[in-house]
Write a structure and sequence with these properties.
The protein has 265 residues and is an alpha/beta fold. It is built from four helices and ten strands. Helix 1 packs parallel to helix 2 and helix 3 packs across helix 4. It is an enzyme of class 3 (hydrolase).
Length: 265
């Protein structure tokens, strides 16, 4: 096995990620000569990222050398992200299938909708995670039409709203009741899933928003306090944005880009 890995790394140029899958029972860790294997790999490609499935405990106070660089939960998105024994955030990637199988399955038509995929992606990023989305083939080894249609819709949403995903991570702000936040520097992205009634409330952001716009088309939005806002108990810290119409501009995920004052970061 070691010789095959060395040949792969040497002959096929730089590789960003080495994915081991998987260790189980007593077939884990040093059963694979894991320390020797990882040292050999990193001697050839020092910047390689390795998953946590070679063995060991990436969440321990002092993880094994082969414990990996990121956690890889499968078919589940962690409720609160991933932290280690010291309370530090651990990079992670949720491994999710577009239907219920990793490979070909003739009777599996249980495809996730574009809304499910997009909102799952946003949820991962909002918790400092990444989404790995698996797409299995049909009997001819081709991507099924159902998958292509779903991915096309996801791609169109990403074309308009990708800035709220690429390079973004979690915000220090608590999860809002209407959706989720992602953040990149002084750009805070509000992912609005639920229109609700009246203006959208941004807790803790009063006086901290320099500009606001709909990310999908750049339309400017006003940050203003409605006349009934004094009814809110924490009005001294909150900001409001009103969207026109009874429906959200994008029912899957309407993204509002908020440019924050430097003092708000």
């Amino acid at each position: 096995m070691h010789g095959q890995v060395k040949e792969l790394l040497t002959n096929y140029g730089p590789i960003d990620i080495m994915w081991f899958d998987f260790s189980y029972d007593n077939m884990t860790g040093e059963k694979w000569r894991a320390t020797e294997l990882v040292r050999m790999i990193r001697s050839i490609q020092p910047n390689l990222i390795i998953d946590n499935r070679l063995g060991g405990n990436i969440l321990a106070t002092e993880p094994e050398e082969y414990a990996g660089d990121f956690f890889s939960p499968e078919q589940i998105i962690p409720p609160g992200g991933i932290v280690d024994a010291n309370g530090n955030q651990v990079p992670w990637e949720a491994c999710i299938t577009l239907n219920d199988h990793w490979g070909y399955h003739s009777e599996d038509r249980n495809y996730k909708s574009p809304k499910q995929v997009i909102r799952s992606l946003v949820e991962c990023v909002s918790k400092n995670g990444n989404l790995l989305l698996n797409v299995g083939p049909d009997a001819k080894g081709e991507i099924p039409r159902e998958s292509l249609n779903i991915l096309s819709e996801v791609g169109e949403w990403m074309r308009r709203n990708g800035e709220s995903i690429y390079g973004c991570g979690a915000s220090a702000l608590p999860k809002p009741e209407w959706g989720r936040y992602t953040q990149k520097g002084n750009k805070l992205y509000a992912h609005v899933f639920d229109r609700g009634i009246g203006p959208i409330y941004f807790q803790g952001l009063k006086g901290k928003i320099k500009k606001a716009r709909l990310l999908r088309d750049g339309s400017e939005l006003k940050v203003e306090t409605p006349w009934m806002a004094e009814q809110y108990s924490d009005i001294e810290s909150g900001a409001f944005i009103t969207l026109k119409g009874a429906e959200l501009p994008d029912e899957i995920d309407t993204v509002i880009e908020l440019e924050l004052a430097e003092s708000a970061i």
